[in-house]
Amino acid sequence: MTTVLVTGASGFVGTALCESLAAQGYILRRAVRTAAALDPNAVVAGNIDANTDWRAALAGVDGIIHLAARAHVMHDSATDPLAEYRRINVDATIRLARAAAAAGARRFVFLSSIKVNGERTMGKSFAEDDAPRPEDAYGISKWEAEQALSKIAAETGLEVVVLRAPLVYGPGVKGNFLTLLRAVARGVPLPLASIDNRRSLIYVGNLTGAIARCIDHPAAAGKTFLVADDVDVATPQLIRAMAAALDVPARLLPFPLPLLRTVAALLGKTAALSRLTDSLQIDDSRIRRALDWQPECALAQGLAATARWYHGQVVARSSTE
């Protein structure tokens, strides 16, 4: 594999992935949304959908890593959120995969989500062979995209590899993880000391390593893999590790979980609380055996890198105010 097209190249995972692949000697073609993000190896794809013209981007490409997606929208203003997720995560993926097959590309790596499996585990870790049970629009759209890719692979011979990832953290992280990180850094008291759960996460560097392994490993073709860091963590454990990385005290308060759920329901924050209190564990033994993949970065190392990035962002903002 020599020339690789990366969609979503300017995003959180895409930026880290392109840096990693370039260091390994891959020739990259970065698909970006706007010309402002252009570099000599970039192509402007615009807002992708079922009508995107991928011919120029795919010329001479051996493999595709498809990261671009409509991810979790905190305050969704779409009239029909599921239809909007399908437009980008399903229809655009189908368009790209068929164009890739027509252009003669060999392999298509698709970054999916553990949400395809479900939202929580109850004593048994999720595995690749479990029946999919997506609950929200994002998870449903990722599962539908996986099914469409399987059909295209059978029809065209395109080698599709699917990676389902849990919450990804690292420098440049956004969303719920950044919100929690910011709260810990500011010393906000968090009533989460009584939670006894276990959640799988993955550091962005570990994820990019898994993606790189999937792009050209012979045993990856046609497979679906779950990926995670080495250690699952309880929410209080994660907060303490964050605090240690940020060099601040961990301000955790005990609070009865049933009462916490009642308060969250009154505030309309039930889903947000569930992500902090439910367990979600991953069995990623398949990719470790089949591709000889191991996460290289431990939780403490990943959080230390994330904390350095966060402190840099704070300093940068302070200098412009």
In short:
This protein has 321 residues and is α/β, with parallel strands linked by helices. The chain has helices spanning 12-23, 55-58, 81-103, 137-156, 175-185, 204-216, 235-246, 257-267, 270-277, 285-291, 299-320, and strands spanning 3-7, 27-32, 42-44, 63-66, 107-113, 159-165, 167-169, 201-203, 224-226.
Largest sheet: 7 strands, parallel
In which range does the helix fraction lie?
A: 40-55%
The parts where pLDDT drops under 50 for at least 5 residues are none
Radius of gyration: 20 Å
CATH H-level superfamily title of the domain at 3-169 and 200-230 and 281-298: NAD(P)-binding Rossmann-like Domain
| Mean pLDDT over the residues | 91
Give structural notes.
There is one protein chain. The chain has 321 residues and is α/β, with parallel strands linked by helices. It has helices at residues 12-23, 55-58, 81-103, 137-156, 175-185, 204-216, 235-246, 257-267, 270-277, 285-291, 299-320, and strands at residues 3-7, 27-32, 42-44, 63-66, 107-113, 159-165, 167-169, 201-203, 224-226. The strands form 2 sheets. A 7-stranded parallel β-sheet has the order 3-2-1-4-5-6-9, with helices on both faces. A two-stranded parallel ribbon has the order 7-8. It has a domain at 3-169 and 200-230 and 281-298: NAD(P)-binding Rossmann-like Domain (Rossmann fold, 3-Layer(aba) Sandwich). Helix 3 (81-103) links the parallel strand 4 (63-66) and strand 5. The protein is built from 11 helices and 9 strands. Helices cover 45% and strands 13% of the residues.
